[in-house]
Amino acid sequence: MTPGKLALPSGNHTLVTQFILLGFSNYPDLQELLFGAFLLIYAMTVVGNLGMMVLIFTDSSLHSPIYFFLTVLSFLGICYSSVITPKLLVNFLASDKSISFEGCVVQMTFFVAHATAENFLLASMAYDRFMAICQPLHYGSAMTKGTCLQLVAASYAFGGVNSAIQSGNVFTLPFCGPNQVTHYFCDIPPLLLLACGNKATAGMVLYIFSALVTLLPAAVILTSYSSVLVAIGRMRSAAGREKVISTCASHFLAIIIFYGTVVFTYVQPHGRTDDTNDQVVSVFYTIIIPMLNPFIYSLRNKKVKYALRRKLQVNIFPF
Q1: 216: exposed, middle or buried (C-beta count within 10 Å: 0-12, 13-18, 19+)?
Q2: Which of 70, 94, 234, 314 has its CA 20 to 30 A from that of 194?
Q3: Residues 6 or more apart from 228 whose CB is under 8 A from it?
Q4: Distance between CA atoms of 149 and 144, rounded to whole angstroms?
Q5: Using CA atoms, how far apart are residues 6 and 20, in angstroms rounded to an integer?
Q6: Cβ–Cβ < 8 Å for 116, 159
Q7: Residue 313 CA neighbour count, 13 Å, CB half
Q8: What are 292-306's pLDDT values in tens digits?
Q9: How far is CA 302 from the centre of its chain?
Q10: pTM of the predicted structure, to 2 decimals
C-alpha cells in the first residue's frame, strides 16, 4: 500500500491520510543550496517586516493611516510566509516530505485567508492614497482611526470567508487516489488534480471566487491610481510631482508583481498544470513579495528613512 493511504472497508479504494509535497524535488543536488537561499529570504522577511512594525509603532511621526496599513501589511507578510516557508525548509533537508491531511487543511486555510486579506488591504492603501492626493481637504475626516480599523477588519473578513469557501470546496471532495502533490505547499489547483469524483463544479468555484477576490480589489486600485495620475498631471510643482510619482511607482511595482502572479496561478480560464514553472511563479507571491514589501513600500519613503535614522542615532550614539 502506498504510504499515506488507508484502505477502506470495500477494498476498492484508498483514503488519503497524508500528502507528499514534491516541490523542487527535481533538483536533488541543489537541496542544501535552496535551503540556504530560502532560509536567508525567510529571515529577511521576518526581520524586515517585524522591524518595520516596531519602527512605525514607536515613532510618532509615522502614526498616520498609510503607515498603519503598512504595519498590517508587514504583519500579513510574516503570517502567510510563515505558513509555508518553515515546512518548505524542512522538506529541503528531510527524506520524508509528507504533511498530514489535517496539516494540509490548516496550511491552505491560513494561507488563503492571509493572502486574500492582503488583496483587500492593498485596495485600502490605494484608496488612502487617492484621498490624500485627490481629496486632501476631506482626508482627515474620511480616513479616521475608526475607518482604518474597519477597512482592516473588512480585509480579514473577506479573507476568512474566501478561505472557508475555498478550503471547503477542496476538502469536501474525496481523495482516494495519488497523494503526491507537485507543489511545495498545499495549494488549491494541485490538490484539485488529486481529488476523486466530478471536479468540474469545484474548478468553477475556484475560478469564480479567485476572480472576485482578485479583480475587485484590483479594480479599486486601478481606479484610485488612475485618479492619482490625473491629479499628478495637474500639479504645478515639479518637486511635488516627483515625490508622488516615486511613491506610486513603488506601490505599482509591488502590485503588478503580486497580482500578476496571483492571476497567473488562480484565474486562468483553463486552470493550471503541474509544471515547475508554476512553482517558480508561486514563489514570488508566497515568499519573495513578503520579503520585498518593507523595501518597496517603506524604505523608499523619505519619512521612514528619517525615522529609522533617528532610531539608529539614539540607540547607537545615545550621547
Answers
A1: middle
A2: 94
A3: 129, 130, 133, 134, 244, 248
A4: 9
A5: 15
A6: yes
A7: 6
A8: 888 876 666 777 777
A9: 25
A10: 0.85
Q: What is the dihedral of CA 117, 166, 186, 46, to 10 degrees?
A: 10
Q: Please, which residues bridge with residue 130 across strands?
A: none
pLDDT in tens, 238-278: 766 776 776 666 677 777 777 777 666 665 554 444 456 66
The type of residue at 144 is T
Helix, strand or coil for residue 4? coil
Contact (CB, 8 A) for 88 and 185: yes
How many CB atoms lie under 10 A from the CB of residue 33?
A: 11
Q: What own/partner pairs with CB < 8 Å and gap ≥ 24 does 188-196 have?
A: 188/108, 188/112, 188/266, 189/265, 189/266, 189/271, 189/272, 189/278, 190/272, 190/274, 191/19, 191/104, 191/108, 193/274, 194/16, 194/19, 195/170, 196/13
> Concatenated DSSP letters for 125-142?
HHHHHHHHHH-HHHHHHH
For 197, the grid coordinates are: 469524483
Could you give the strand order of the β-sheet that contains 98-100, starting from the edge strand earlier in sequence?
A: 98-100, 18-21, 180-181
Report all structural domains of the chain as residue ranges with CATH numbers, in order of start. Answer: 5-316 (1.20.1070.10)
